[in-house]
TrEMBL record:
Superkingdom of the source species: Eukaryota
Main location: nucleus
One BP term from GO: mRNA export from nucleus
The name this protein goes by in its record: Nuclear pore complex protein Nup85-like
Keywords, in A-Z order: mRNA transport, Nuclear pore complex, Nucleus, Protein transport, Translocation, Transport
One MF annotation (Gene Ontology) recorded for this entry: structural constituent of nuclear pore
GO annotation, cellular component aspect: nuclear pore outer ring
Record keyword Protein transport present: yes
Organism this protein belongs to: Trifolium pratense
Family, similarity comment: Belongs to the nucleoporin Nup85 family.
Location in the cell: Nucleus, Nuclear pore complex
Length: 64
């Protein structure tokens, strides 16, 4: 999380950030499947990661 919230510049490009955001969306959809095994993550982990990626995406867009 600290790396994604890096203040100097975006750590990931727009395409890399979009790819990771899409993977998070796939994980959210997979949770609805009957045989999904829940990962052992803190309750707000995915929300925090999503927010950090969105922040990085904004910085990456401004950098281009």
């Amino acid at each position: 999380m600290k790396l994604l919230n890096w203040k100097d510049s975006p750590l990931l490009s727009v395409s890399e950030t979009n790819l990771l955001l899409n993977k998070l969306q796939e994980l959210s959809l997979a949770r609805q499947r009957p045989h999904f095994t829940e990962p052992n993550l803190p309750p707000q982990a995915l929300s925090s990661i999503r927010l950090a990626l969105a922040t990085n995406l904004g910085r990456a867009i401004l950098d281009e």
